[in-house]
Amino acid sequence: MAARVPLELAGLTKTFATPAGPVVAVQDVNASVRDGEFACILGHSGCGKSTVLSIIAGLQRATHGRVVIDGADVDGPGADRAVVFQSPCLLPWLTVRENVALAITQASPHSTRAERHARVERCLELVGVADTAGQLPGALSLGTQQCVSLARALSVDPRFLLLDEPFSMLDSLTRFELQDILLQAWEQNRKIVVMVTHDVDEALYLADRLILMTDGPAARVGEILTVPFPRPRVRMAVLEHPQYYEFHGRVLEFLEHHAAQSAQARSQDLPHLQPVVAVAR
Description:
- This protein is an alpha/beta fold and 281 residues long.
- It has a domain at 7-80 and 158-269: Rossmann fold.
- The chain is 37% helix and 21% strand.
- The chain contains eight helices and ten strands.
- It has a six-stranded mixed β-sheet with strand order 6-7-8-3-9-10, with helices on both faces.
- A hairpin with a 2-residue loop joins β4 and β5.
- The longest helix is centred in the C-terminal third of the chain and has 26 residues, at 244-269.
- It is globular, with a radius of gyration of 21 Å.
- The termini are far apart.
- Mean pLDDT is 91; it is low at 272-281.
């Protein structure tokens, strides 16, 4: 008998009510994520990636279908799942240390002060921002704030780390640096990671598998690719891997194909327009 996968998406569908009528954001999404795996959900903006992640986190309910963790349906948020969003979402009146400690207190209310302090310092050190522990978030760069958000998520020792385009607001150099920090942290604890991104290079560098979404509305999983690059990963080694450009091209071809299909479908939905003839008077 095959081993049960920790996370399974089964027929996941989400419909939103709008003034123009119901809109199906994602439809019949099926995928699974294995123990210790880093999976990226990849697709164009607006294809429902963040909606799927939000349903996995328990922040939204699916209209149809199921999110299953260890054989049990997910019906709300849980301590086994921590989320890092696009923006850091730190409490501005608390120091870095206090932001992380608050998360630990909420997740482990019976832990001692010494235990919380040790865990805070360990997580800040893990993501390279231990020297900012006494500072307020407003005094830090956006990249450093996002490192603190990652430390806060890791501090509650979740089984699943859910990342919603956490580097999309950063400049390229900072984004590369934080990708490396994330990889180093992940190598040490091997949490199950599900990350949403629209950056092909980022997904190929970080992930074990890519879950490729078609364009919305009614987006679905169009293809799942296993990334062949060995771990631990170094950026230059990945870029120089003989299969890198093959996989990069496959992903781009998939995205371009479905973007063209989506554009064609939208054009067919437009009403037929009569040509306008100017008449001199």
